[in-house]
Amino acid sequence: MSGPAFHLLSDDDLATLEAFECSERLRSNIAMFARVKAERKARKEKLRAPERRAKTAERVRKHRTSSKTLNRQRLDTLKKATARASGDRFLEKLVGRERDLVRFWIILTDARKRFGPGASDRVIADHYRRFTGTPMDRNGAFRCRHIIQKLEAAGGVWHRLK
Fold this sequence. Notes:
Layout: H1 11-63, H2 67-83, H3 89-93, H4 98-115, H5 121-132, H6 138-152
Helix pairs in contact: 2-4, 4-5, 4-6, 5-6
């Protein structure tokens, strides 16, 4: 035996070997291209993530209602309800007091945030007096708080605004 071993292979054997090597090279190239493509996609997604977050934040900001809007919505809802309160004695009694009740609701929610949800009527009345300058005792706070509870209860005017 003289010479290299490839002389012993026939032409068919060489063609089979070349086809095998080509297919191996092709498979490795396909795998490499797939890996590169995945890396590019991941890089692109990473660059687009802050853009997506900004769009989401803008969408949320657009749909979030401000407290001013919410207060206005409460006032408008209560005024409409008292305007068409025919036969509802509770709402008929509230005609003309809408603005004061919304103001009380604002101060009540602030008092609950500051002093806890179990703030007494005396504390709420003091808080109301401090912010509005209007005199109110604990009995007045009790009455207003119960009116607010009725308005926010199921079937009440402000039920859906909670």
